[in-house]
Structures are given as C-alpha cells and as structure tokens.
Design brief:
With 245 residues, the protein is α+β, with helices and mostly antiparallel strands. It has a domain of 152 residues: VirB8 protein (Nuclear Transport Factor 2, Chain: A, Roll), CATH 3.10.450. The chain is 36% helix and 24% strand. The strands form three sheets. Strands 3, 4, 5, 6 and 7 form a five-stranded antiparallel sheet that branches. The chain has a two-stranded antiparallel sheet with strand order 1-2.
C-alpha cells in the first residue's frame, strides 16, 4: 500500500524559516562572544607586556687611528656591578669639581674637592689656590673653564685605579676657545670613618677619597661624542710633578 504525504502548510514553512533564523542568530552571537573574549585577552596581554618594551640603540665606536667601526655593547645592569657604577659616579664628580672653573661655584667646588681628597692629592690642590699665582687671581670672574667627562676607565685587576678622559673648554669674556682634552690618572679609596662633620657627610656620604691625581694632555683627536667636529690637541703636556692649574 502506498502512503502519500501531505504537503506542508504555509505555517509550517514559516515556522521552519523562523527557527533557522534564530539558530543562525544564536550562532552569530556565540562567534561574536568568542571573538570579544579573544580581543580582550590580546589587549590584556599587550598591556602587561608594554612596561617591558624598549628601543635598544646600537652604539658604534670608531677607532680614531684606523677608522675601523664596530658595534659596542649597551650598558646593561645585569653585566655591570653596582660598585663600578658608584666608582664612575664619584670619579666623574671629582674631576668635574677639580677641573672646572666657574666663579659663582668656585667655593663650592673647592670644598667638594677638599672633602674628597687626601694626602698628596689634597696638598697639590691646595697649591693651585695658594700664593700670588693662585688660579682665581689669574683668571678672575670673567673666565670660565667648562668640563665634560668623555669616558671613565677602570683597569681590570687594579682596584682603586682609574683613568678619566675629559674635555676642557675655556670661555674668556664670552668667547669660547679651542677645546682641550686631558687624561686624569687617579688613585682612590673609600674612607667613611674619616668624615667628622655633617657637611662633609652630605657632600661625600661614602667617604670617597682621592689619594693621587695626575693630569696629562691627550695628544689624540679631541672629540666630543655629542658634537659633529673633532679637534686635534697640539698644546704641551703638564707634568704630573708640577702644580697643575
């Protein structure tokens, strides 16, 4: 016996279409929710990684004699000891105060160097501002010596020894002269127990003491890494046995 199926009524077709639309909408909303969750997760991950983002420069060093260029390592706290950074800080501070000549800061620099010097280094410095040929009497208030520390070298295996390379520019009545470069050879140590006054402790809390100081002319190319030009040093050297002014 053959069974005949009655064709679906228009109401059944309409209900079927409505159900299909509802399922399609539910599926679309589910996809939208999943996409929103993924977008939020990506935003959170990006925000959490943002503090660790940094641009790493590639400094290039050029040999002044051969002209050969090479990429040097960027200062990294994981590779540089804290004591080395502290040494470089105090060495730079000392050289700046000792070699600079700026009339309004003259007394402050003098006190700073006195607190940070000991032995022969202190006696040599006192001679610079003693007698009729004192540096302040020779230069007066209209001359300025500007100091820029170019580099600080700490020889490996020689604790308490350093070589500071710095540039000095003399400004006379507003006219800047030819830059000069020097090498300061320094012997230093820390003696915090020698500080007896509060002011000394404020200027030099770690008791940094320079026990020997020698300044010699750098006869190479006198160049500031931040400047575009270079100047060749041609002046005569100052002997370490003489009073250096």
């Amino acid at each position: 016996m053959t069974l005949f199926k009655h064709p679906a009524s228009p109401l059944d077709w309409e209900a079927s279409i409505v159900q299909m639309q509802e399922r399609s909408e539910r599926r679309a909303w589910q996809v939208a929710k999943v996409a929103s969750v993924i977008a939020v997760a990506c935003a959170v991950a990006f925000a959490s990684m943002l503090p660790f983002y940094r641009l790493i420069p590639l400094p290039i060093e050029v040999d002044r004699l051969t002209g050969e260029a090479e990429v040097i390592d960027v200062l990294d706290a994981r590779h540089v000891k804290l004591t080395e950074l502290v040494d470089r800080h105090w060495l730079s501070t000392y050289v700046q105060a000792r070699e600079r000549y700026f009339w309004p800061f003259l007394q402050m620099d003098y006190d700073t160097v006195r607190v940070m010097s000991d032995g022969q280094a202190e006696r040599d410095y006192e001679q610079i501002y003693a007698g009729p040929d004192a540096l302040d009497k020779m230069l007066g208030p209209d001359v300025e010596r500007r100091i820029k520390v170019l580099s600080t070298s700490l020889p490996p295996g020689e604790p308490g020894r350093a070589v500071v390379h710095f540039m000095r520019t003399t400004v006379d009545h507003g006219q800047a002269g030819r830059p000069e470069c020097f090498l300061a050879t320094i012997a230093y140590q820390y003696r915090p127990k020698l500080l007896q006054r509060e002011r000394e402790g404020t200027l030099n809390p770690l008791g940094f003491k320079v026990t020997a100081y020698s300044r010699d002319v750098d006869y190479g190319v006198c160049q500031d890494s931040t400047a575009s030009g270079a100047v060749t040093s041609t002046h005569t050297a100052t002997l370490s046995t003489e009073v250096q002014r």
